[in-house]
Amino acid sequence: MAGRVQVHPEAVRAAAKFAGDIQTRLQSMADNARTAVSPGAAGWGDDDFGSNFADGAKGFSTSSETMATGTENLAKSFEKLHSGLTDSADKLQNTEHGNTETFA
């Protein structure tokens, strides 16, 4: 026979808050990365070397956008985790209240 299962909505809410905090930090990192590389050619010049550095097949522009997009996607995953945990905590709490009223 299976053991007893206990779930504490307040602990689930704490995990949701933690996931939300991570989402906020990741989104901030993606935004800051995009801002940091937005000056364009000023950072590396508009000569052939600068153009190759920035716009080559594996250039800085493409690589930095890929990294920012990946970080943003990770932030979206943590946003979904936050939302799912919050919804779960609400449902657990409502179920507990409903069961308490049924047996009271």
Description:
The protein is mostly helical. It has one domain. Helix content is 77%, strand content 0%. It has 3 helices and no strands. Helix 1 runs antiparallel to helix 3. The model has no long low-confidence stretch (mean pLDDT 89).
List keywords for this structure.
ESAT-6-like_sf, about 0% strand, WXG100 family type VII secretion target, 3 helices, about 100 residues, single chain
Q: How many domains, in number, for the residues?
A: 1
Find the structural class using helix and strand composition. mainly alpha
Strand content: under 5%
The residue-averaged pLDDT reads: 89
What is the terminal separation in angstroms? 28 Å
- Give the number of DSSP strands: 0
Task: Tell me the series of helices and strands, N- to C-terminal.
Answer: HHH
Largest sheet: none
Q: Low-confidence segments, ≥5 residues, pLDDT <50? A: none
- Total of DSSP H or I helical runs spanning 4+ residues: 3
Rg, alpha carbons: 23 Å
Morphology call: rod-shaped
Helical content, roughly? over 70%
- Quaternary form: single chain
InterPro entries: ESAT-6-like_sf
Protein name: WXG100 family type VII secretion target
Short description:
This protein has 104 residues and is mainly α. It has helices at 9-36, 48-55, 60-103.
Give the SSE map.
Elements: H1 9-36, H2 48-55, H3 60-103
Helix pairs in contact: 1-3
Protein name: WXG100 family type VII secretion target
Organism: Nocardia terrae
InterPro entries: ESAT-6-like_sf (IPR036689)
